[in-house]
Amino acid sequence: MARLDGTVSVVTGAGRGIGREIALHQAREGAKVAVLARTKSQIEETVSLIEEEGHTGLAVQIDLTSRADVERALGRIVDELGPIDTLVNNHGSFRAFGPIWECDPDEWWQDIEINLRGTFHTCREVAPAMRSRGRGRIVNLVGGGTGNSFPNGSGYASSKAAIMRFTECLNDTTKDAGVMAFAVDPGLVRTAMTELQLNSPEGQAHLPGIQELFENGVNIPPERAAALIADIAAGRFDALAGRLLRGVDDRDELEREMTRLAENDDRALRFSGMPS
After folding, report:
1. Which of 94, 150, 156, 182 is catalytic?
2. Has this prediction a pTM greater than 0.90?
3. Which family does it belong to (predicted)?
4. Is 63 designated active site?
5. Would you say 220 and 249 are in contact if contact means Cβ atoms under 8 Å apart?
6. Where are the domains of the chain?
7. Nearest to 262 by CA among 246, 238, 236
8. How far apart are CA 42 and CA 40, in angstroms?
9. Domain at 8-263: CATH code
């Protein structure tokens, strides 16, 4: 019996890249998977891959910045697949590169809105039903700039740091009811987002470090984050709820270190050297 048999998973940004791998891993573990993104053709392709392996998928086109659209989409998922057990917020936007005085203000804010507001909308809709059922796991993807400065990537970094803190707040609000939230950093993965950073004039001018990292062999397979998130959905890392887990982590070592990490308040967004 697969670990997620009888459960329902929702994965945003699942039309390609990391999100597609997450959706496929959830399905392979037995979950019925709702695949969400803006582009209909991409989510339909992901669902086709899920169905080719004999699993159940549902393509749902969505604008995550629209509260009404999120309510409609998640309502449809519950109607067609059943109550949601796992929510994975994988969607992301990073188009505003450069010093803030050179960034288009609307584009900078759109990165914030898609990343942070989209995550807020899905969590706000899913968490109450999970609380009433006494169980559920929410995974919010973070990334570069979450716990450190990201020169020339301030919009993306600000949104990801905010998602990390939001995840901690959400977990502390819901864990007593059996609903746990986690942050996951997949690492530097070759995706459409990083291709834009590598190939656009703005990305080449303002984010040369990305190219250097790839040239030095840093390229984390998306399967690493997908396997980690499948473990989270199955309950393997419940002791680390509210904290940051990484695609580069050795999951067996992480499991052995869970108690110590929690006791030391590690993998959290904290001021260094200051009392809490």
Report:
1. 156
2. yes
3. Belongs to the short-chain dehydrogenases/reductases (SDR) family.
4. no
5. no
6. 8-263
7. 238
8. 5
9. 3.40.50.720
